[in-house]
């Protein structure tokens, strides 16, 4: 009986999954294959690609220039994820514990900027960080500095912009993990002798770890590929992987080489997700 | 019994949530080694009272003393009180061993001593071999045992148990009741136990505090509560009882003559009763006897019409209607089963001490 019921359940699931599989194959699988195929070709005139075929694009990537860019991108993405965690966790925690009224307001603060164009918001940072901008003005009038500091067009500016752009992707999964917490566990830990801080470290943090992991992945991966933030806020020596792809595609019009760079990025992303799965991360922790 | 030492005392405890008064004035002294149960319907304030003792809730007024020290404002982690939570609240990311060792690990106890203590607890709760299991891989009864071991390992002065058997099926419940009682006796730890199951309260407790609407209705031994309920609520919450409206006729010494449906019946009474006063008499269903003939002739006897009777294995349930329309539910042993049929006139009698006058608190919230 039980077996029959299970069997019926399984067969009834398969037709439901079929459209999803088709969708993924068409829009994700095919385009992926297209890019991989392109990356094995050679650039032609007028944005075209063709023979000879080979791994020459990848050979070109293995050079100090691209290695340096890759490391710079990874380092930036790493610190972006880390700072997003440090800033986003407390925000998410207090948002989840706030009254439902306060929660609505905090959620608005987080979401509303998303309705504004990202480019415009980064332009805002450009003004904010410039030598004549409000930040420098304030520091000057407070007497903290004697002459304006150069913040714009530095790695610092890129880092700040990245954290700013990515922080909602940390807050949302952490928020949903904290919100789902069973606070009886924390009470139990207090009851057994834990101070509020120890209770947080030994119970709340491990129990919200799926949200933290999801947040780390969701902030780390896009940070490697983002190009417009470093374009607008970075200096001439800030060359992130995303900028490389962008340049090869739109400036050099080298479709095959841009594809090869993208494939490297995709492989990296795949690796991060693999590690995430290994650590017990689930795809549904990323849904909030 | 040796001299009893007060371990915990609650003085004038009140707790108000928004406008709702969850605890409305509770005074209680709990003796060392005692098994005391807070019994009552859901929402009567028993869990809030327990949480105040654990330190998870601050009382609006009143105080909590443990071992003579005022702990009302003390943080939960600083109290020598541990709690077994209603849904166990085991840490889902720790295995059985780590769950049990948690309290000692926090205290920085030496690893070898922890191991030894955890082993003792595993023995006590029959969880040997389950150390590596995660809570999600355990049955309800096993989770229950882990929750108990996790608290007992700290040798608390007082263990609070919030409906610890609520989620278990009946058979396991009965078994765990015995085990818990056994553990409490062996370890000599004071238990404050919460349940809404009157049978559980009766069989396990030394004393029961019956609660309603944030107050104690009666604080008594199981026997006292069952045999001498003081109010209609107490009488009907525990066991099955008949509440008969009676009019006092004449009172002398500690006895009062009652008029129930035209019958004159004596009843023991210690309170002052004035003739003509309306009273409520509680009669346990199984303390009533039925017969078709007028013999034997005790002093407390009424006559009525049998409206319903049903064989139920060990006992027979009958309903007798009195001349004034009040009914009596009667449980008789089927060992001396009589051939009774609805419509017949029957004699219903009881021993004088089985009838208890109770205060009518049925209308109170």
Kindly describe this structure:
The complex is a heterodimer of chains A (288) and B (365). Chain A is an all-alpha fold. Chain A has a single domain (63-286), classed as MetI-like fold, CATH 1.10.3720. Chain A is 74% helix and 1% strand. Chain A is built from twelve helices and two strands. Chain A has a two-stranded antiparallel sheet with strand order 1-2. In chain A, helix 8 (183-191) crosses helix 9 and helix 11 (241-250) packs antiparallel against helix 12 (255-278). The two termini of chain A are 37 Å apart. Chain B has two domains: 6-233, P-loop containing nucleotide triphosphate hydrolases (Rossmann fold, 3-Layer(aba) Sandwich), CATH 3.40.50.300; 234-358, OB fold (Dihydrolipoamide Acetyltransferase, E2P) (Beta Barrel), CATH 2.40.50. Chain B starts with 5 loop residues before the first strand and ends in a 7-residue tail after the last strand. The longest helix of chain B has 18 residues, at 170-187. A six-stranded mixed beta sheet of chain B has the order 6-7-8-3-9-10, sandwiched between helices. Chain B is elongated, with a radius of gyration of 25 Å. Chain B has 365 residues and is α+β, with helices and mostly antiparallel strands. Helices cover 23% and strands 37% of the residues of chain B. Chain B has eight helices and 20 strands. Chains A and B meet through helix 8 and helix 9 of A and strand 6 and helix 2 of B.
